[in-house]
Amino acid sequence: MPFVPHTDKDVREMLAAIGAPSIEALFDEIPASLRIQGLDGIPSGMSEMEIGRLMSERARQDGRPLAFLGAGAYEHHIPAAVWAITTRGEFYSAYTPYQAEASQGTLQVIYEYQSMIASLTGMQVSNASLYDGGSAVAEAALMAVRAHRRSKSLRVLVPTTVHPNYRKVAVSTAGNQGLRFEELAYERASGRIDAAALQRFDGEDITAMVIQQPNFFGVLEDVDQLTDWAHARGLFVIAVVNPTSLAILKPPGQWGAKGADIVVGEGQPLGVPLSSGGPYFGFLTTRMEYVRSMPGRIVGRTVDLEGRPGFTLTLQAREQHIRRGKATSNICTNQGLLMTAATIYLSLLGPVGLARVAEASHQRTQELVAAATRVKGVRPAFDGPRFHEAVLLLERPVAGVLRELESQGILGGYDLSGDYPELGHALLVCATETKTTADLERFASALGEAIRKSARAA
Amino acid sequence: MSNVPADLKYSASHEWVRARPDGSVEIGITDHAQHALGDLVFVEVPDAGRAVKAGEACAVVESVKAASDVYSPIAGTVLEGNGALATAPELLNTDCYGQGWMIRLQPADPAALGALLAADAYQATLAAQGG
Questions:
Q1: pTM value?
Q2: CA dist list (Å): B15 to A100, A154, A238, B30, B102
Q3: Domain A66-74+351-457 in CATH: superfamily?
Q4: Tens of pLDDT along B68-89?
């Protein structure tokens, strides 16, 4: 049944009540030159039957490729129960209800989510989720500027080993609010932040430093050393982490002597399907002392008048519906449905299950690199330790090789030549627990064939 | 009826100012303001040494209902923020003119106090607002 919120009669009555002649008249202050007269190129309506057929035909074009593409979004097995539970009517809304306390179940899920994410990141407090990983980085930078009581520079160091899209989102979002993002180079041999390049910032007022672990190349940074360096100079440390990796890596709350100050990341690996790029969700955790600078909402546990336990929205006095222009954020949103899926995913796997996923993904990636680098014309780009992604250097341009692999039903990885031209023909590959030994062999053999074909064609 | 002590000066945005013997001033929020905000849960005061302009937002008071800015009624340099409020924000509710003081300020111009509202004038603005 189509959702028609207002009948013609409703509309006439509402217009009469406010004394407007037509809906069109409500928009008369927008100059005609700014109004679109018609939507060219958008066909008129189709029936449900027609649109269903069209969409299933389009979906078939995607196929079911064997994917070795990571670069920020990761294919993991999602237990069937995750979305069976998430899509129950009681949970099936993207939003926290406006009369939030009327939905104790929704609030409890958010509370459980916050507890799990805080525990996973080793921090004291989590918000109810953010829009996605990239915007979470931007929010963290803005939060660091608010929370830092001494630094006035609004300068934030962002290594080029941070996801290129996250860097772009941070600049788009926070660049116009006076923040300056300054790049830090990486070491060509290891693929890690070049610690020597940090020296030129000694003695300067810098507000924060972003550290991604594992970094965009899949390489593990020396997070203890970097965190201590930053804290010794009064910088806030913003950690960007893959939540799956935290089952086996040191949580940011324990980096260096003091731990990171703000932790953010992309939550997609926790039970959210790839879905052609979204929707995903971001997460953000911090120390208790910065909680009032944290964007977004938090659910707290409390007791009612009769002393019975219950859940309530807390610390919302700084949200935009109360603080308007002075809110901690006017861009953040809580991704309720995806956060619900993540909470159920984490509940089903448990700490041991998540660690097994992380270990299997790491193991598969090590096998993938070993198989791929046995192919003539393929070598690893970096010698540093990795989690579940790796950069391969090919003898031939990556784009052509990827096209050839695609024709074999393989999504071969992410072409780094656009973001990192200095690396040459560099391909970022990923294998998770979803890949079998046969899959890895198929990839290596197809990769070798694609490189040979590409060389013959040249 | 709000408590408006006769010996203080006031701003229309509900801050009070007390002249101290050493030439500095003490600033807080009025009984009317604390009552309108309800139970305070958090107070953020400025660091010593900060220069503030008259009318500049220099502190934040947060209740269960809202977070609001507190504006400095006069220009000057912050000598001290009331550190006790960090752990006891309820002092603003229980003793807003005493232990609930927020900021000690060295005024840029001591004469600026004269331009602020006297108790009866502030009382009149409250009456006009229905308070």
A1: 0.87
A2: 34, 31, 37, 6, 10
A3: Aspartate Aminotransferase, domain 1 (3.90.1150.10)
A4: 899 999 999 999 999 999 999 9
